[in-house]
Amino acid sequence: MAPRRRSELYRLTVGILAVGAFAAEIGRLRLGALDQGLAATLVVSGVLAMQFPININLSQKLSVASAVFFASALLLPVWDAAALVGLVALLDTTISFARKALVMRETPPWGLLALSALFNSGQLYLSVFAAGLVLRSAGVSAHLPGLRASDVLVIGAAAVTMYVSNLLLVATAVALTTSRSPLRVFRNTHKVVLAEFASLYLVGAAAAFLAVRAPWLLIVSFLPVVIVYRSLRYRIELRRESVRAMERMAEEVDSRDPYTYEHSQRVARYARDIARKLGMSAAEVELVELAAKVHDIGKIRIPDSILLKPGRLTDAERRIMETHPRLGFEILSQFAEYAKVLELVLTHHERYDGKGYPNRIVGRRLLLIAQVIPVADSLDAMTTGRAYRDARTWEWALDELRRGAGTQWNPQVVAAAVAALQRDERPLERQAAAAIA
Which DSSP category does 334 fall into? Predict the structure, then answer.
């Protein structure tokens, strides 16, 4: 079953479980007995907070609405709190799709809208419901006249329950789409957002207790959420700046050699097109493209006397040159942003028959995603001139890929490359332009 299909079935299952839980407990709702002003404030605050998500990557985005949701769990009965949060998520999904429809001027895909609304509402409903059960089992709420040490521990346990439930449900959906471990996705996301989310839950708890004493303070108490939002956005932007800095360094490596100028950018473009042709998810395509942009970063530690040598390398020089995948791995391993692409960088010169370097790994033992860049890299190498030979034609290079399918390269990846890049004449156009210049 395709990864995307698995993810869709999982999200549908989560949504159905939430609907089932709601239907089973609908008789316990006390909507008529709720403070309508309080409920309206929570709904409006939640919807507004969710309109400013922070994108970690193409697959995941975070919202500071957790403060509002946790406050709801402390202020309302468990069934009402879960229902209210589910309603907020439903409104947010509908607003997001309506906004996209207006911008794109296209009718939204109703099936995707329904599935997104079902999953988003469902996973938040279940997370808040779980936190509410922890609070209810100990008789703790924001309406208590005072807090004991044990009550604080229960509130902390409820916050952890909601945080872990929410993040794990979403991480599993992302993991199924990208064929990764849910725990690894959870851990990577957890590293980025833990401090900020701890602050959000603390703000949510404080807001709930203040609202009971003075309802008008509910809005004021959410102002610290703005500070947390700006802090989290700054950290994500800092991570992106690190990525851009590495890409600029990789471009500098390419620019050292006039024959490989913009090599990494072209390899990234070819790898992206091949990955899409293979039916990989958007997140996998993003990973391949990111890795391709920095796949030769290790060459920054290769002496110019070897990297820029006009003739063929000696055996000793070639052994030094063949260390660049491992050197790239070592450089990038210092940056958490590249944790998911380290293997792709390390293996970009491995061969399908196991005769590549640096580890002579047989291609069948590598993930398919790790066998895309070797094809894209070879294609650009063949269609780029060197001091000791002229550039090959595009058709010659594609024929060479076909001849090497099953030995040097994965046949499935070669087939995708030929299909995706059959009419790609951009390298030839670039060479012609350079000749004219």
Answer: T
